[in-house]
Amino acid sequence: MPAHPERLDHWRAALAGGAMPPGLTTSEARFAIYRNNVHHSLHEALRARFPALERLLGAECFRALSADFIAAHPPRSPVLHEWGDAMPGFVATLAPLAHLPYLADVARIELARGRAYHAADARPMPPEALLALAGDMARLQLVLVPAAEVLRLDTPGYQVWRRQQPEPPPSPVTWQGDAVFVSRRGVDQVLTRALDPAEAVFIEALRAGETCLAASRQAARLGAGFDPITVFSNLIRDGQIVAARLTGDTP
């Protein structure tokens, strides 16, 4: 009998269209039905993970894309929400889609939204506790929820993604690289919003353990109009801060 890894290879090859795995007693026709059911389930999982990508490509084109992706990157785990991380790179290599470079960034946003939805729960600090510390920005360090991340995109991928949502903005797409904040508020509300370059630097610095003052100084290098209090207030409002402490060192 083949070893377990070898049997898995046989099954993956069979599901990709190869011969039936050795040892099966079913007919080729019945196995073909099973193969089709597996492919349909995987296709539906990709549709659920990349809805904006499907809307941009259209159902027929996305189905062809998903078939190629399933063949090139079959799931390695039964937990399908962990599958699909290779999609941005896969899309970026497809010559027929080379004239749509923002598609890979749309896929990155949708992957980040999935990560945020499934991230560990964390209880936000009470606003009054945070505001009590806000006067000492030089020593204040903040810890954000596990779901929080900043995406740096080379294309206007966020602007394109927004236009695939139920209430798209009326403004035209501006061709520039977008910065995006993706996180989760509460149990199931995924946040996805654009950041200006200074805001992105500020939040990245906080996530790296910098004090609020140090993060503000880094952000201010990109523009004198940066207001850390507004960003701080938005993080409190959205329940994004789970811990805060005052360092023992001053700048």
Quickly describe the structure.
The protein has 251 residues and is mostly helical.
What would your notes on this structure say?
The protein is built from eleven helices and five strands. Strand 3 and strand 4 form a beta hairpin. With 251 residues, it is mainly α. It folds into two domains: 100 residues, no CATH class; 132 residues, Outer Surface Protein A, domain 3 (Alpha-Beta Complex).
Brief descriptors of the model:
mainly alpha; 2 domains; three-stranded antiparallel beta sheet; two-stranded antiparallel sheet
Summarize the SSE layout with pairings:
Blueprint: H1 4-15, H2 28-49, H3 51-57, H4 59-72, H5 87-92, H6 102-118, H7 127-133, E1 140-144, E2 149-152, H8 157-162, E3 179-185, E4 189-195, H9 197-207, H10 212-220, H11 228-237, E5 241-246
